Amino acid sequence: MPELPEVEALAQDLGRRLTGRAITRVDVAAFSALKTFDPPLSSLNGMIVDGVSRHGKFLDVDVSGTHLVLHLARAGWVRWRDEVPAAPPKPSNKSPMAARVHLDDGSGLDITEAGTKKSLAMYVVRDPQDVPGLASLGPDPLDEDFTPEVLREILDRAGRAQLKGVLRHQGTIAGIGNAYSDEILHTARMSPFKPASSVSEEELGTLYAAIRSELTAAVERSSGLAAAELKGEKKTNLKVHGKVGATCPVCGDVVREVSFADTFLDYCATCQTGGKPLADRRTSKFLK
C-alpha cells in the first residue's frame, strides 16, 4: 500500500510532469472507482493543472480550482505514459485499469489497481475537504505542528489501544500505514502491542524521533524518483516489514510475523519485546 513517503514522492513527480499541462479528458474503466458526480468528470476537460499535493495518503491534483483527488488504497498505483492510446480503455473485471488521464501533448496517466478487491477511489470536488476520508485525517507527522506534545495527547486519548493500531489510524495520524508503522516501532524498540497510554516520557521522545526519522529518510530517498521506481525503493530499504524469516539488521535475531485476518505485522522480538515472541493466531500460541 502506498504510504506517506511514496505518495509524497508521487505528488512531486506528478507535479513536475502535470503542472501547466491541460487535461483533455479522463476515461473511467472501473466505474466503481469514481465516488462523486458533482462536479462532473467532464468539468476537468480543457482545464490547466496548477499543481499536485498530498494529504496523508491522498493525492490532490489541482485542475484550475477543481480537484481530482485519488486514494490508491492497498493495490492502486499511478503510471506515467509518454504516449497514451486515443481509444478509451475498455471496462473489464480482469483488467487493472481504473482510469486514464489524457493530456494536451498526448502523454497521460494510467491509474491502476491490482487484485480483485477494488478499493481505489477517485473524487472530483471543489474543495479537498469535501472528500470524507480526507476531511477526517489526523495531523501530518512531518508538519511542523506535529510536536512531541501533540503525540503525547494522541497517545493519552488512545488509552489502552495498541501502538501499532494508533500509528496506522488515519484519523489519529495521517499517512502512516502497515509498513512504516512496523519500521517506526522497530527503530523505537517498542512492542506493536504496547498500550499507547503506557508510553513513558522518555519513550515518548524515542517514539517521536523514530516517527520523524523514518518518514523523513524515506521521503528523502524517494524524492526525485519516477513513479515506476518507488515500489522498489521502498521494499529495498525496509528493515523488518515484509522480511519475516530474515535476520534483523540491528541484533541478528530472526524477524517474526503476527498474522491477522487481512493483514500482518513484522517485528524483532529481541529488539522490541524483550525476546518474547508475540501471539500469532496461526500457531495458536497466546503469549504475553
TrEMBL record:
Residues of the Formamidopyrimidine-DNA glycosylase catalytic domain: 2-93
Alphabetized Pfam families for the sequence: Fapy_DNA_glyco, H2TH
Keywords from the UniProt entry: DNA damage, DNA repair, DNA-binding, Glycosidase, Hydrolase, Lyase, Metal-binding, Multifunctional enzyme, Zinc, Zinc-finger
Superkingdom, taxonomy of origin: Bacteria
Listed PROSITE patterns: FPG_CAT (PS51068), ZF_FPG_2 (PS51066)
GO biological process: base-excision repair
Reactions the enzyme catalyzes: Hydrolysis of DNA containing ring-opened 7-methylguanine residues, releasing 2,6-diamino-4-hydroxy-5-(N-methyl)formamidopyrimidine
FPG-type domain mapped to chain residues: 239-273
An annotated Gene Ontology molecular function: zinc ion binding
Family: Belongs to the FPG family.
Protein's name according to its UniProt entry: Formamidopyrimidine-DNA glycosylase
Source species: Marmoricola endophyticus
